[in-house]
Amino acid sequence: MYIGECNVPCLCPYCYSKLKSVPNLDYVPNKRRKDFYYTSDGFCIVSQKFKDFCDEGRYGSLDFQKLNTSDFYFFEPRDIFKTNIRWIPFNVFKIWCNVCKNYAELTGGVLKDESFKLETNDFIMRTDNFYGKYENKHPMIVVGLETERKMKDFGLKGIDFDNVYG
After folding, report:
1. Which of 137, 156, 140 lies closest to 148, judged by CA?
2. Which of 32, 57, 124, 164 is least surrounded by Cβ atoms within 10 Å, i.e. has the fewest?
3. pTM for this model (two decimals)
4. Residue 93: CB partners within 8 Å, gap ≥ 6?
């Protein structure tokens, strides 16, 4: 969304880590065959079909911001899936920033925090931590196993499902 631009909003002024996803609503999507994808700088873009799935399933606490140039949306769940980033050897975290109190780089798998309890197996949430490097970081989207089945039955394209551990 912001590749090549100088004034990217919500970056730490010291380490340039993305602290919050603020979309550029004038962004023009180029992958119109998929219902779900990330831009190269870590913004989640979804199709009208994906939004229709969420509306029909009555998944609450989801933000859809329509892009001005197409029928696509910037997407981010508001509900938080609590994770444990200290899980070794799977996660790699580098360069602690004392300004934003965050790691500039966090990569690896998603491990559910032991204290976090789920009430259902049909949900759409985002991780409490941003994964990736610097300005390309983004929260991972986490869905329940029942939601995964429903997404596949609905025929949504472009979604890769990986396991959450814990």
Report:
1. 156
2. 32
3. 0.86
4. 85, 103, 105, 106
